[in-house]
Write a structure and sequence with these properties.
- The chain has helices at residues 2-9, 24-29, 35-42, 55-58, 93-102, 120-129, 146-155, 171-180; strands spanning 13-17, 45-50, 64-66, 78-84, 104-115, 158-166, 187-194.
- The chain has 207 residues and is an alpha/beta fold.
- Strands 3-2-1-4-5-7-6 form a seven-stranded mixed β-sheet, sandwiched between helices.
- The chain is globular.
């Protein structure tokens, strides 16, 4: 996945939302998998935003801001917004997308990664529990499928230009995706381009 991400951010300005990746301790233990560090190596400029204390990163000379990604106003625009495994944590993803739309240059790109509803973890979890409520991160507010993420993005003036799937390098996950197909990878990787048309009208099913 990182190789694909590099192609989209190389030489560009990037806003990285939710860059802390769980905790400073997690980053210290897994420095090679910290996506923000990877972005800083490949993009021309990277600004990180997170709601937690970002001072430890500022002290290490990263350009970071503490704030709520749904409402923050940085007073500037970027070529790319990266939303790495954050959209499933938000209380109001539509508000977030509208805010990121304002922070992107015309024709800018939004890159979203989010757990695949039909990846091995939720499917195996549902099978083990014999129910329809597989275990997940307790901070998650939703699951997404290709249809729901497309609908959400289109409502907020983004058009998908790439939708792919990736899998952690673990034997079971790799075999699961190999047997059932790429669409059953753990992570959805979505690239969407900013549009300037009016938001998609929402139709009430009660109408």
């Amino acid at each position: 996945m990182l190789e694909t991400l590099a192609d989209y951010v190389r030489g560009r300005s990037v806003l990285d939302c939710g860059f802390v990746d769980h905790s400073c301790e997690h980053i210290a233990e897994n420095p090679k998998t910290w996506v923000h560090g990877f972005l800083c190596e490949h993009a021309r400029e990277v600004v990180g935003v997170d709601r937690v204390d970002v001072s430890p990163f500022a002290q290490r000379n990263f350009e970071v801001v503490q704030g709520d990604v749904e409402s923050i106003d940085l007073g500037r625009r970027f070529d790319v917004v990266f939303a790495g495994d954050i959209i499933e944590h938000l209380s109001n993803p539509g508000r977030y997308l509208d805010n990121m739309h304002r922070h992107l240059h015309d024709d800018g790109l939004l890159i979203v990664t989010t757990p695949n509803t039909f990846g091995p973890r939720p499917l195996l979890g549902a099978f083990k529990s014999l129910g329809n409520d597989p275990p997940c991160n307790p901070e998650h507010t939703c699951w997404h499928s290709p249809r729901t993420i497309r609908q959400l993005l289109e409502r907020h003036r983004f058009g998908i230009v790439e939708l792919d799937y990736f899998c952690e390098v673990k034997r079971f996950n790799w075999l699961f995706m190999r047997i059932l197909g790429r669409r059953f990878g753990n992570t959805m990787f979505v690239v969407a381009r900013k549009r300037d048309d009016a938001p998609t009208e929402r139709v009430s099913r009660g109408a």
